[in-house]
Amino acid sequence: MKFRIKIMICMLCLVSILFGVGSSALILISFQNGLEQERDTAENSYRLLIYTVQMSGEGETEMLSESENIQDTLRQIAGQRGSYWDSVVLSGGEGVLYSQGRAAEYLTRAEERGNAESCVVTSFRTDDGSAYIRVSGGFSSGDQTMYLEAGHDISSLYEKREYQQKIYRIIFVTAMIICAVFSYGMAYLLTRPLSVLAKGAREISGGNFSFRTNIRSGDEIGSLSKDFDRMSEQIETNVRELEQAVERQERFVGSFTHEMKTPMTAVIGYADLLRSQQLTEEERRDAADYIFSEGRRLERLSMKLLDIYVAEKTDVRLSIHSPGRIAENMADHLRPVFEKKKITLKGKYEKGKCLLEPDLFRSLTVNLIDNASKAAGEGGHIWVSVRMTDEGCVLCVDDDGPGIPEDAREHLTEAFYRVDKSRSRKQGGAGLGLTLCAEIVKLHGGTLVFKKRGGGGTRVIAELRGGRYEK
Q1: What is the pLDDT of residues 326-376, one digit of tens each?
Q2: What is the pLDDT of residue 6?
């Protein structure tokens, strides 16, 4: 059963109970008040009737004459148009002396009978369903006691109650219909956002992570919708990151397999050649040199992977050092090697100290300069600079090479990724240098950014935020 149906049923039950109990109590109270008024009126009218009857019998000495006077009085009173009493019965020791009215025979059936001191008020119904109120009492007439029963038709009071109950039933049914329509409409409007949220849950479970409820309301459902949309957005982001991670992992496995397969194939092939065939001294030397070079290549690959693994697992302890002095020292050691390749290396190093891990910073500087030298090529230029900041330092390495395509920049720090695969492999690169740099910068709480350099080439900005040291 839908929630809006449950709300409608609850509203109908509540309204029916409140309306039913209230209306029934109101009708009952009204009927009881009317019946009580009729009893009071009947009792007062009966006392007046007794008084009139007693007065009519005074002054006579003969019992018969007195009885006749009383009967004549009753006849006149009951026969008057608009008389309150519909039926009257007078009885004495000799039985019924006078009887008048349709309900006269019912008046003497009651066991309760009043006396001269008090009267008894009861009610009864005739065979045709008419309702009467009965007043019974007695009075002294000479040396005898006479009894007078009077009845008043109160059927109109019951008819009025039945009419009220009929009107009540009509109003009750109408009210229930209106309540059902109104409560269902309100429940539909209130629960409609829940249907949207349910649809959103189904969409997300089905893989549509871009679905948003976009419910705008200031109540709890609106707050739930905002939380739901934030959750959907976070799930979409996490799934996208997982997909990218899986894609990177697949590329890593593929690249790693390729990097390992090529030198291993060459090593196995030349080793088999040395083992199975007779070669000249020159051929044997060439084969041994090729095996040696490929072995060194595998060594560099394994060392790079080890450096990345160590960097990821290292609990970095930062200490106070001068990044400008470290970068200048590394550049001075690399400059003779670059001069042989006709690569110009220049630097500008700002003085100052900050918190960093010196060995990792040296590795960062060497890898960025080495990557820039491969991009610049023979006859190229490299510029290294260190600038101090409030949070640490910034290491910037520029080259005047061909530059990096914009769509390749986001993949530069991925393992084994190369912009120019053929040239990088000839230069002995494994595609792991920038991956290590990114991990080192991350351990220093910084960022690694690649930009297009004005005038051609690439600018790599490594901002370290380990903290600034002030004297």
Answers
A1: 999 888 888 888 888 889 999 999 999 999 988 788 888 888 898 888 888
A2: 84
> Is 90 in contact with 115 (CB distance < 8 Å)?
no
CA distances from 171 to 22, 27, 175, 283, 449 (A): 13, 13, 6, 113, 78
Q: What is the DSSP letter of 190?
A: H
Per-residue pLDDT, 64: 45
Query: For residue 272, what are its two tokens?
Result: 């088999």
Please list the alpha-helical segments (H only) found in 87-206. 104-107, 155-205
Pair 382, 369: CB distance under 8 Å: yes
Q: What is the pLDDT of residues 234-255, one digit of tens each?
A: 888 888 888 887 876 776 666 5
* CA–CA dist 389, 324 (Å, integer): 12
Beta carbons of 358 and 319 less than 8 angstroms apart = yes
Exposed (0-12), middle (13-18) or buried (19+): which is 329, by Cβ within 10 Å?
middle
Is residue 130 predicted with pLDDT exceeding 60? yes
| Cβ neighbour number for residue 189 with a 10 Å cutoff | 10
Phi, psi of 94 (to 5 degrees): -90, 10
User: How far is the first Cα of the chain from the last one, in angstroms, to the nearest whole number?
Assistant: 74
Instruction: Write out the two tokens for 314.
Output: 């290292």
Taking CB atoms within 8 Å and a gap of at least 24, the contacts of 326-330 are 326/358, 326/361, 326/362, 326/365, 327/361, 327/365, 327/384, 327/386, 327/395, 328/386, 330/362, 330/365, 330/366, 330/369
Element (H, E) at 451: strand 447-452
pLDDT beyond 80 at 181: yes
Question: How would you label 429-459 residue by residue, b for 16+ Cβ within 10 Å and e otherwise?
Answer: bbbbbbbbbbbbbebbbbebebeebeeebbb
pLDDT of 293 over the 80 cut: no
